[in-house]
Amino acid sequence: MATAKTYDPELLQLERRRRANWRRIKGLGLHLVLIALLGIMLYPVIWMVFSALRPEAEIFGDMGFIPTNWTFENFVRGWNLYGNLTFTQFYINSFIICALAIVGNLLACSMAAYAFARLEFRGKWILFGIMLGTMMLPIHVQLIPQYIFFLNIGWVNTILPLIVPKFLAHDAFFIFLMVQFMRSLPSELEQAAVVDGASYWQRYWRIILPLSMPALATTAVFTFINTYNDFFSQLIYLTDTDRMTVPVALRLFLDPSSGSSSFGGLFAMVLVSIGPVLGFFLASQRLLTKGIATQGFK
Amino acid sequence: MSMLDAANNPVLPVAEVGRPVRTIPQNRTGSAFRKAENRAAYLFLAPWLAGIILITALPMLASLYLSFTNYAVIGWPSWIGLENYVRLFTSDRRFVTSIWVTLKYVGFSVPLVLLFSLTVAVFLNRGLRGLSIYRSLFYVPSLIGASVGIGLLWKEVFGERGVVNHMLGWFGIAGRGWINNPTFALPSVIALNVWTFGASMVIFLAALRQIPDSYYEAASIDGANAWQRFHRITLPLITPVIFFNTVLLLINSFQSFTQAFVVSNGRGGPVDSTLLYSLYLYQQAFQQLQMGYASAMAWILLIAIGIATALLFWSSRFWVFYGDR
């Protein structure tokens, strides 16, 4: 009988072992493919790391992977490339803008999100639709009049054009992110506060905001990364050399007349420039990779 | 209904009571606290509303007006009607070039990013060990890919003595200078965009993990092979996420700027081969100071993105599967 054969314990165990082996081989193969893909993808970055650490003359030499003569001279040269204006100043400029942008986004976006997520008001759905619509607007349709306006009120070459929009919740994506999160909080929490006579501001500040920490943290990290990496608006608004941020300063490496034919210095500064982003990411990677995706789809 | 529903409790002063339970049918006990809630909501929205008016709506209107004028920052704009638009489409070779470059850029990078991100996400979702490490490493390029630094690196990587040619050398292939060759410059920039597929991959991965294992078990019992399980279960269930990712990628890649700028030192070369639309717009606005002309370009871009997204939304009814409908 066929059933008798199927239930033969020896055969069954053999079959099970065969399958387990097969699965192990397939898993190993998958790991190898993924590691190879990652290797190809990250090879340029690793190459840059080692290039920054070897003497200038050896960078495009025989391309031996690991440097034989380790040196930090590229970092020193790159950092001081523009005479008395060093990257110290560019980093300070970048970090000031990032810090203020984070504060602005957290405050303004969470306030708007609280209204959309937890309050009822007239015109709510129209305004919500407008908010979603602005996420799709290309910046270019606002850019030119904004620039002319900021130019006329004397804000060009200050950080204000980069900061003020954040305090006006211009990044609708973060409003949306926080709305999604705040909607999922149970309403009983706020009801308890209402019984205690809490005002709307207290409900927002004391209850909803502390509970929205994951969404706020995600917003902070992404605001940092976006603002730090942002090139377009910083290129337009910050033209004085002492106001320049890291990306705008790096751009000068492109200019042949600045006398920066130093590839070692270039690689060293590129490496240093992506450092803060990678640092922020490592510090918050669970939040970033898991948080954003799940919060966006709740 | 909860005991704490203060709106139904007549003991509490009306002014201090909100309408706490939103999903429950409207409470008509008084318009006073509805008015208070209304006012509170608009106070919370005040910064955003100010922003919408001052830095979104007004500039948009101004840019629409400027697009019908000749304006060079100094002096006043002079009305020239449709001349900017006519000139763009009839006598501006570089404009037409920039449209082609952008269409090629979007047309190649969006499908490639989707393909890479979905494939890697599906393989990562197979209960692999070290999933979170892989996920983070694949995500790293997305973090830094938009930065000037990586643009500078890319210029060297695809340069004549760069890493790409070095790697090709292992297989005995003699390379060339990719980034300064009119044929290969744009593909190099597209490659940089595809390199950042990790962000889409993370979103796919989150969606894949929400598909119940029981679906796959049931299919396996029915004798479905791996491809059938992907094709009949995974793919239909994640079409909403494919749609979401496509919209995001489309809107972003239409506006790409930094990498083409860095790789071509702001010129869009060689021979305008990397002249993306935003790069040309930047040149017109901030190098030639043709603010009216550039505003016309901005509005054409807005309309183009609008049409592309509308088409995508329209097409979604044929291929996006929502389980609850």
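Chain B touches chain A through 102 residues (CB under 8 Å).
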